[in-house]
Amino acid sequence: MKVIFAGTPEFAAVALQSLHEAGFDIPLVLTQPDRPAGRGMQLQPSAVKQYAVSKGIEVLQPLSLRMDSKDPQRAEEAKAAHQRLLSTPYDVMVVAAYGLILPRSTLDIKPCLNIHGSLLPRWRGAAPIHRAIEAGDTETGITIMEMEEGLDTGPMLLIERVAIEDSDTTGSLHDKLAALGGKMIVEALNKMKAGQLPATVQPEEGVNYASKISKEEAALDFTQSAAEISRKIRAFNPFPGAYGTVNEVHIKLWGAEVLDGGNAPAGTVLSADAQHGIVVACGTGALRLTQLQKPGGKRLPAAEFIKGFPLEGLRFS
Question: Is 103 annotated as a binding residue?
């Protein structure tokens, strides 16, 4: 079975590696153009491109696949990419976190299967892992679906569940789901090859959307409950990193434990010492902050952080 793969970040690279190691013929990989990254803002290839190049797989990086784009360069690149797809013999396209919209012209060439990091129809959209943790979901999973023009609306082919632990961050849950997605897409293609991959239409009940994460969301509101704030800290780890502000300094918060009590104005630092740790009052309950980071510094355990940044008597806003 010949598979064209489209994806960009590490989540997708894990799936590409799984397909390659399972012996699927991958004649072409689509990924987004190299982007500036790091302190020097040098152009960096995506995780998918890095893996594909290491295995000698041809890589195509169009700015868009929409041939009707009003941007002449994007339209031209889309036309070239479309012709490349038409001229490449393949049986199925696998898509995972590609980041570009696949137009009808692409979807009509061959079946397109998507690896989506949620239990559809819950959390359609760009940030299903973040939003599941933020909302307090107790489980999530991977859905292998057949793509259509709607946003994650296509028929479901395989689905597996994963518990969301109280300790899970977006980073840790991402890794679990990436590994599961890689395993499941190999299973799906093997079943497809054997004609044993029935499709199930998504139910209309339970649809919601996982909007893209913005950096503005990283600012914490301590008038919310300790449980809500704790979930946001976990959901925004590693990106964009939740923070509270003390004396106009943004302090990133990477870990916290929910406590009862906290009878003080929201944001008040109730303790900041080696015995009790850093405890902050919230709208309901309190948080014991376990890992913090000041601008330009490293992530530090609370006991180490307060040695260089005393917090007692201060207030987060």
Answer: no
Structure token pair of residue 142: 């991977």
CB count in 10 Å sphere of residue 260: 8
Domain count for the chain, please give it: 2
**Does 100 count as an annotated binding residue?**
no
Whether 164 and 132 have beta carbons less than 8 Å apart is answered as yes
Range of the domain at 119: 2-210
Residues 68 and 85 in one domain: yes
Is residue 316 situated within a structural domain?
A: no
120 is in an annotated binding site: yes
Question: In the structure encoding, which two tokens stand for residue 120, read together?
Answer: 């559809």
Q: Is the pTM of this model over 0.70?
A: yes
Q: How many CB atoms lie within 10 A of CB 310?
A: 12
CATH number assigned to the domain comprising residue 241: 3.10.25.10
> Is 119 among the annotated ligand-binding positions?
yes
Kindly report, residue by residue over 194-214, the tens digit of the pLDDT. 999 999 999 999 999 999 999
